[in-house]
Amino acid sequence: MTLQGKKIVLGVTGSIAAYKAVELVRAFVTAGVSVRVVMTESAQQFVAPLTFATLSRQEVMTDLFTLDAEAKIRHVAAPDGADLLLVAPATANAIAKFAQGLADDLLSTLFLATTQPVVLAPAMDTDMYRHLAVQENLERLRNRGVRIVGPATGELASGLLGPGRLADIGEIVQAATELLCPTRDLRGEVVLITAGPTREPLDPVRYLSTRASGKMGYALAEEAMTRGARTILVSGPTALSSPHGVECIRVETALQMHTAVLDRLAEATVVIKAAAVSDYRVAQPADSKLTKRDAPLTLELVPNPDILKEVGTKKGERIVVGFAAETGDLIRRAHRKLTAKRLDLIVANDVSQEGAGFGSETNLVVILDSGGGVEELPLLPKRQVARHIIDRVVGLRQHKDRV
Ligand code: PMT
């Protein structure tokens, strides 16, 4: 995969992380990429345009209101002008402008004019990043096909600890590379993925559930789709919106997930079950709200079908990948599930570890295979964990095709 000869526009906005964009320019230029830097007015408060001009060996664009600005925008945004628009760091303000379609400076105008893939790497204070307005704007952009990288979690310029740091330079370069030189090694595959929790009603207002947010499964769906697979995502209730280009089937209960998976199984060449399914459901949910009493309440729970086990029995030529969420004795328990459910791979995560499992942006996993292999991955963003899992699926497919 070579980036030589590719052209990107790098938008730099007014965050303290603007100095890290200098590193980005160096990384791209070293890889043979032509980088045209566009700076907002506030970005110039943090880093001088001359720094970027020197490293990129190109004039830095800063001003919308020059005589030839319109021609420049057309030139830079046109298909033969740039292969990608990358904005790093992207502030809350820039993200809001992009989401709302405002065009009151050069970068936001360029964003509206570009027809090429766009990558945004947000950087801001934790509380700003968590604000519903920012989250909604990011979600809106994601739904329009913009690739969002990060932010990372750690210590911020304000001294606060939390999400908001610009993602690692390597991660941003990797995301840009995937869009500049897409790997289509899953072309021809139909990947069926489950994600999120299931909800098992007790009555019309209460339910039993698991703590899954869906992030792991959605990252897998995005990765599989990006690599050329027709991707079907069966999702329990989550706050996430369907990844662009993925067919998403929303379900609530384990029984509904069971039906949806079996309905689509015949099409699937790969099944990955990242959902945290409730093992039990209430035998007889009440028709109306259970009233509070001063006495213990006993609920009768019945087992839900083990969807993955059933998929394993109908495996055929399919590649089947399960997850194991454990709080101890990780490898032994995961290995038992790998064998009992006839899986090719199982991704074991100890959900009692910091940064692993439910709800977090990262995961810490060990991948076991049916040949006895054990691969331990470091703590990584879920999208990178997804990339490793899909790499393993591609490896298995190549192996199966050879024998
Ligand atoms: O969604 P996130 O917040 O990102 O969190 C990710 C995750 C922790 C949910 C994910 O990494 C994970 O571990 N998913 C599997 C959780 C789980 O249910 O593990 P389990 O060990 O109970 O189940 C083993 C496997 O059988 C899983 O692939 C599960 O999807 C499947 N299963 C379980 C029960 C059941 N009735 N049917 C199933 O198919």
TrEMBL record:
Q: How is the cofactor bound?
A: Binds 1 FMN per subunit.
Q: What residue spans carry the region label Phosphopantothenate--cysteine ligase?
A: 191-403
Can you give the residue ranges of the DNA/pantothenate metabolism flavoprotein C-terminal domain?
186-394
The cofactor named in the record is: Mg(2+); FMN
InterPro entries in UniProt: CoaB-like_sf, CoaBC, DNA/pantothenate-metab_flavo_C, Flavin_trans-like, Flavoprotein
The pathway entry for this protein reads as: Cofactor biosynthesis; coenzyme A biosynthesis; CoA from (R)-pantothenate: step 2/5; Cofactor biosynthesis; coenzyme A biosynthesis; CoA from (R)-pantothenate: step 3/5
Q: Which reaction does it catalyse?
A: N-[(R)-4-phosphopantothenoyl]-L-cysteine + H(+) = (R)-4'-phosphopantetheine + CO2; (R)-4'-phosphopantothenate + L-cysteine + CTP = N-[(R)-4-phosphopantothenoyl]-L-cysteine + CMP + diphosphate + H(+)
An example GO BP is:
pantothenate catabolic process
The record's EC number reads 4.1.1.36, 6.3.2.5
UniProt key word Metal-binding: yes
Q: Name one GO molecular function term.
A: phosphopantothenate--cysteine ligase activity
Q: Which residue numbers delimit the Flavoprotein domain?
A: 6-177
Q: Where does CTP bind?
A: D279, K289, P305, D306, I307, L308, F323, K337, K341
Name the GO cellular-component terms: phosphopantothenoylcysteine decarboxylase complex
* Record's keyword terms, sorted: Decarboxylase, Flavoprotein, FMN, Ligase, Lyase, Magnesium, Metal-binding, Multifunctional enzyme
| Phosphopantothenoylcysteine decarboxylase, as annotated region | 1-190
Q: Specify the domain of life of the species encoding this protein.
A: Bacteria
Is this entry keyworded S-adenosyl-L-methionine?
Answer: no
Q: Name one Pfam family in it.
A: Flavoprotein
User: NCBIfam families, from UniProt?
Assistant: coaBC_dfp
Q: Which family does it belong to?
A: In the C-terminal section; belongs to the PPC synthetase family.
Q: What does this protein do?
A: Catalyzes two steps in the biosynthesis of coenzyme A. In the first step cysteine is conjugated to 4'-phosphopantothenate to form 4-phosphopantothenoylcysteine, in the latter compound is decarboxylated to form 4'-phosphopantotheine.
Give the protein's recorded name: Coenzyme A biosynthesis bifunctional protein CoaBC
* Organism of origin: Candidatus Methylomirabilis tolerans
Identify the coding gene: coaBC
